[in-house]
Design brief:
46% helix; three-stranded antiparallel beta sheet; six-stranded mixed beta sheet; 14 helices; globular; 15 strands; alpha+beta
Amino acid sequence: MTDAISFELPWARTDKFDPPAVFDALREQRPLARMRYPDGHVGWIVSSYELVREVLGDPRFSHSCAVGHFPVTHQGQVIPTHPQIPGMFIHMDPPEHTRYRRLLTGEFTVRRTSRLTGHVEGVATEQIEVMRGHGAPADLVATFARPLVLRVLSGLVGLPYGERDRYLHAVTLLHDAEADPAEAAAAYEQAGAYFDEVIERRRRQPEDDLISTLVGGGELTGEELRNIVTLLLFAGYETTESALAVGMFALLHHEDQLARLRADPTKIDAAIEELLRYLTVNQYHTYRTASEDIELHGEVINKGDSVTVSLPAANRDPARFACPAELDIDRETSGHVAFGFGIHQCLGQNLARVELRAGLSALLRAFPNLRLAVPADEVPLRLQGSVFAVKNLPVCW
């Protein structure tokens, strides 16, 4: 048996856009490789496009947190296996996963989210004015990407944006691998108490938001409601904010691609799909655990073995995408796995696309001379954690 690699190797991202270099060798030599997990478990990691889709599409691989081994640490601590948490359907299998997800699917269809386009564009326009009011240079994350995504998502879910100080800190700390564990736990508890408060408000006085819809359905307990709200906010905010900010960073750095997009704004949707493929900000957290012995790529995955799948590595697989290390907005990118694959594919991907389209389009229209205010190598990156991000993005115009 080939020696197992450390779970830290797939974390070893050093470039502002490229996944860790180890994946290039793994895809060619060992697309299904042994990996030692933070808790000592020796499982597997998959790095090829074909195998990533095979694992994510096979119902024999469980996503239950009760049996899996987490491929990452959280604030430097091993994440233990733990019982399922009511409402946290992202770490459940059918039929529990199916029951929860079907309550939400209708809110995130292409048709439903496309109706939000005008609203999202209006928010983007308002944030452009915030940037103008701030003056150049400005931090695109703080003045544009973060408030745009949070305003849209919190409004859809039903969390007042004006009360964001009561829940935003918890979201930020959750995705910060360097945050203090005690501080993060306290913020998480405070946010949960606030969600309970908002849920109770909606019981008394429903509004046009997702919390009111779920409360009115009468199928969920208070604990389930709180955890679903937590999941939607924590999973949908940081990822889309990062995709928007890092996406703009990539365009500003790849000036030829930016020029092509400016010359033909109808390429915006193709550009978004290529940015999603090229950047794949969801880095580390995708894993499954075999519920029985499974043969995969000539190996036997034993029951109980966890298999981490690298979405960034799959989206850079030359067997699927020609010259994958290049950003090319004219590329045919159908089939990328930036949002995952299978029954756990990102529920909010259609909303994310609406936000990315409105955000990038607004920036390109408003600032014909938008450019980085510092050299690209000086933009501070957040390399650790489940979401790849820029800490801030200084721009001028």
